[in-house]
Amino acid sequence: MKKVSYAEFGGPHVLHLIDAEEPHPGPGRIRIAVRAAGVNPVDWRVREGQVLGAHPIELPAGVGLDAAGVVDEVGQGVEGVEIGDHVFGEGTDTYAEFAVLSAWAPMPQHLTFQEAAGYPSVVETALRILREVGVRSGQTLLVSGASGGVGSAVLQIARDRGITVIGTAGAPNQDYLRSLGALATTYGQGWVERVRQLGPVDAALDLAGSGVIRELVELTGNPHKVISIADLGAPQHGVRFSGVAGSMPEALAEAVDLISRGKLHIPVEKSYPLAEAAAAHIDSHAGHTRGRRVVVVRPDRT
Length: 302
Ligand SMILES: NC(=O)c1ccc[n+]([C@@H]2O[C@H](COP(=O)([O-])OP(=O)(O)OC[C@H]3O[C@@H](n4cnc5c(N)ncnc54)[C@H](OP(=O)(O)O)[C@@H]3O)[C@@H](O)[C@H]2O)c1
What we know:
- By secondary structure, the protein is α/β, with parallel strands linked by helices.
- The chain has two domains: 2-119 and 266-296, Medium-chain alcohol dehydrogenases, catalytic domain (Quinone Oxidoreductase, Chain A, domain 1), CATH 3.90.180; 123-241, Rossmann fold (3-Layer(aba) Sandwich), CATH 3.40.50.720.
- Helices cover 27% and strands 27% of the residues.
- The protein has helices at residues 41-48, 113-116, 120-133, 149-160, 174-179, 191-198, 213-220, 248-260, 277-285; strands spanning 2-6, 16-19, 30-39, 61-62, 66-74, 86-92, 98-106, 140-144, 164-169, 183-186, 203-206, 226-228, 240-241, 268-273, 292-296.
- Strands 3, 5, 6, 7, 14 and 15 form a six-stranded mixed β-sheet that branches. Strands 10-9-8-11-12-13 form a six-stranded parallel β-sheet, with helices on both faces. Strands 2-1-4 form a three-stranded antiparallel β-sheet, with no helix packed on it.
- The two termini are 17 Å apart.
- The site of NADP nicotinamide-adenine-dinucleotide phosphate (NAP) has 30 residues, from helix 1, helix 3, helix 4 and strand 9.
């Protein structure tokens, strides 16, 4: 099968489309014929050699966590899913024609494979940090870097829970944030004052890692009401860095519920053929994705 792989850590040029052995699912896993894989910043962070997990990456390595596709092998002990089912979920080396998933859920019917591939990691992250920051209905949450994948999910889930949201994003994304039900303002000079004018803030999330932790603590008045997923220096300000993934099966079940109720939609900013995964990484790295980018293994209509 075709698979995106790299034999050394480095820039996007280390990615190559290679012929590889097909993977097969062990107990409790399934294999899908991948239709699309979500592109997450963690994909290029790991490729660059940033140490993110407890386990070192063995080279050569594949790329990708999130995917949507058609079940074609079912591991021992797996129940409730059949060959031919359309699923989305999380696994390993998903930028490939076939991938093994460790967590999955049936795809909501009206989603395309490309759309579905964008949800798993961003929804897991959004649910986790909303839980950790402890914000409740009737309160106001400030989200720094609100127009990306995680931000799009946080905004919509918070609004569904009766939380008022103030989001910061670039000028081209102000109407996008408002379309998700948020109060919007731009980041950059004067942003703290612009947020103050929108109202008092009970809790805050740093999704962009743009060096604003001190200001977020100032705005909430309490470092325990701020969480960062992108600034490793956050603990120096007494702020928690959230980096350990929560339960993916629960996140997928909640995603299905929200999507089916019309409360959650993550737009696909752009899709790329498997052979152009490097371009997807370059664009994701630029840091201005609205929603999610996806790598397409087989187009939706084939
Ligand atoms: N620790 C964890 O568990 C975890 C989990 C998931 C993701 N992450 C990390 O969290 C970050 C966000 O992930 P993502 O998938 O949402 O990324 P993304 O889709 O690439 O979105 C990044 C967003 O940041 C915004 N942004 C860029 N510069 C900004 C600035 N100076 N101030 C405020 N916002 C700015 C952009 O908005 P504009 O386009 O409007 O400028 C863009 O929408 C990444 O660094 C990722 O690695 C960590």
